[in-house]
Amino acid sequence: MECSFGLTGKDYVLLCSDMSAGRSIIRMKSDENKIKTLGPHLAMAYGGEPGDTNNFAEYVERNMRLYHIRNHYPLLPESASAWIRRTLAESIRSRKPYSVNLLLAGYDTTTTKPHLYWIDYLGTKAVVPYAAHGMGVYVSLSTMDKWWFNDMNKREGVDVLKKCIDEVKKRITVHFNFNCILIDKDGIHHIDIESEDPITELESQQPKETLVDAPNPPLDIGNVGVTA
Amino acid sequence: MALYHNPPMAYAQEPNTAPIEHRFNPYSDNGGSILAIAGKDFSVIAGDTRQSEGYNIQTRYARKVWQLTDKAVLATNGFSADGNNFVKRVKQRLEWYEHAHHKPMGLKSIARMIQTMLYGKRFFPYYVYNILGGIEEDGSGAVYSFDPVGSYEREACRAAGAAQSLIQPFLDNQIYFKNQQPESGAEPFIPGNLPLSTVLSLVVDSFTSATERHIEVGDGMEIYIVMKKGRSTDDLLGEGKLQKGMKVEELIPLGESSDDEDGQGGERTFLVRQALKRD
Amino acid sequence: MELNGGSVVAMIGKDCVAIASDLRLGNQAVGIASNFDKVFPVNDKLYYGLPGLATDVYTLREHLRFRVNMYRMKEEREITPKTFTHLVSSTLYEKRFGPFFIEPVVAGLPTPTELDPHPKPFISTMDTIGCITTPKDFAVAGTAADKLYGVAEGLWEPDLEPEDLFETVSQTLLNAVDRDALSGWGAVVHIITQDKVITRTLRARMD
Question: Where are the annotated segments for Disordered (chain B) (predicted)?
Fold first, then answer.
């Protein structure tokens, strides 16, 4: 009973996840944040076995942070995806594997390119323009096949995302609330996907207001961006 | 003392709760492969002659391709007992038809009849894949392929049986010209229009390939060629037309050729045999 | 194997070898990516393909890159196709009782030496635990293996020139994966000759 998807645009990447938590048919929470920010320009939407999910997400988060502290710059999306994949691939052949699927989204500040990775609990990694995990797969992938195109601007991207969410609401009997972020050169922003025009809202606000709290602000004060 | 009322039973004494069941399995798989290709005015229906069960070869010559009428040939593959019995029943129905209507059944009618016969046993099916080839009423070469419960379709070619997965993509490429395009300015490809010599070469190549890589295919090959009435047989019987090792015979007409008003004779069926590797 | 799908084929030609793969990565019947390469270079005369479980494709590839780099540094020369095959084989056999779900295919041209001025083109394939086969014609692996066998057996002939080999391997792969639900979604072909490698991405059916 989980649903997450992500898509890349010209200079940003969108990530969207449902917010339900529960067991079998019972929902115990409908405002659980299942997107973890892993750095100033990196975040992941995760799902899977409850317990494993948060434990693994925090493990990744702290390791990304550790890398940032040690090197004074964060791990780039490509490298982060390789590290996460390897961690899961080692885990799958261990005594107690993590059962976590995730979408990793990041903005590479060195190349100004968005990145999206589809990663599953086996350590399978796919570099994709758009992706989905969970129940969303069956409706949102075809929606994105139809509407996604290269180098979409933010408004077009959000429109596709809205179409996906509409499709999920229409075709899937389970009700979901969605949590959505956008990563661009300025960092990670929260997006109110339910609003009429999230991008205008986003642009009308001060950049600082919309920024999602990075778990810990970067150490080198005054230079929030990435210095690779 | 209640603790000791039920002393732990030794594992050896434990009763077997589930009785061992023996269930008769009415089906078997006898391997082999068949294929058919339609031409403009002929049809080629072929099969290998090996019959096996598991790793055991039961015989190196078992027939899988059957002449039904002067213009229809049926190939069966799967469980050979079912196949043989099915052909027997089809032939019986064809005989009844001829008695009732004083003419042999047409190809597309045979195809529809096979569907109803197969579907009639929907819940205890003949474990057989059928391919019917022959000459349609309009004189065109035709191939009909069936699944075990009667779903069927007219096609330009079809492979079935153990080596279907090996042969069918090859035929897609060579008969349907899949993943190919004509050179600019050249004629467009039309499936089902190949000359007989090309079709025969493809059939032989398909079976030698399948024999090379599939253990259930081999020993021998029988190729039935049904020709439209009045068609020249030069491209089959002409000097040097047959490949090395091939033997051809013409099958005597089954009908009384009473409808031979145009003086062209009826459809003609030829049987070409060739040896395949026996390992 | 059937979890992610994917197929690889390699063929020998006249002083050249070809290796090709499809580009699909799936999660059972659902297609996830159409850019998942399964063929990787070792050097400009040696390529290998890893069809099978996608997580093991990455893991094995990373592992082999490490082992080949170590070989290169220690030996100060490039690894030969034959040695590389045995390297892959022993890497697989190390995991005899918990194998990588991969059936590798290796294709390469050995560099001419004084002892062997005209080395033969080389292909090899292995099962999941590293049992080597070195065919004289072609090697196939993956979810469309049986289809590839059928078409390759029909189309391949000895001593094909590079461009003819390209056509043969491309037609073999495309027609085989079109009959396989778990393979396809594009293809990539590498033709290795003594003086260059030709790499072409093929358009294919996307269903």
Answer: 254-279
| CA atoms of A14 and A190, how far apart (whole Å) | 10
Minimal Cα–Cα distance from C152 to chain B, Å? Answer: 8
Q: List chain A residues with CB under 8 Å of C25.
A: 124, 126
C146 → chain B, closest CA residue: B166
Residues with Cβ < 8 Å from C45, sequence gap 6 or more?
C78, C81, C108, C109, C110, C111, C192, C194
pTM: 0.92
pLDDT (tens, 9 = 90+) of chain B, 279 residues, equals 555 566 555 555 656 677 788 899 999 999 999 999 999 999 999 999 999 999 999 999 999 999 999 999 999 999 999 999 999 999 999 999 999 999 999 999 999 999 999 999 999 999 999 999 999 999 999 999 999 999 999 999 999 999 999 999 999 999 999 999 999 999 999 999 999 999 999 999 999 999 999 999 999 999 999 999 999 999 999 988 899 999 999 999 987 655 555 667 899 999 999 999 999
C15 touches chain B (CB under 8 A): no
- How far, in Å, CA of C133 to CA of C127, rounded? 9
A127 and C33 in contact by Cβ < 8 A?
yes
- Residues of chain C contacting A4 with CB distance shorter than 8 Å: none
ipTM given for this complex? 0.96
Neighboring chains of C (3 or more beta-carbon pairs < 8 A): A, B
DSSP 8-state class, residue C39: E
Q: Which residue of A has its CA nearest to C55?
A: A124
B179/C149 touch (CB, cutoff 8 Å), yes or no: no
Q: Which of B236, B226, B233, B238 is nearest to B268 (CA)?
A: B226
Q: What is the CA radius of gyration of chain C?
A: 16
CB C80 within 8 A of CB C146: no
- Separation between Cα atoms, residue A115 and residue A120, nearest integer Å: 16
Cα–Cα distances in Å, from B80 out to A21, A222, B164, B220, C30?
Answer: 56, 82, 17, 17, 37
DSSP state of C102: B
Query: For the CA atoms of B205, B211, B213, B215, what is the dihedral angle to 10 degrees?
Result: 160
Q: Are A137 and C55 inside 8 Å of each other by CB?
A: no
Contact C55 A88 (CB under 8 A): yes
Residues of B with CB under 8 A from a CB of C: 163, 165-170, 172-174, 178-180, 205-206, 209-210, 212-213
Report the C-alpha gap between C204 and C207 in whole angstroms. 9
A79 touches chain C (CB under 8 A): no
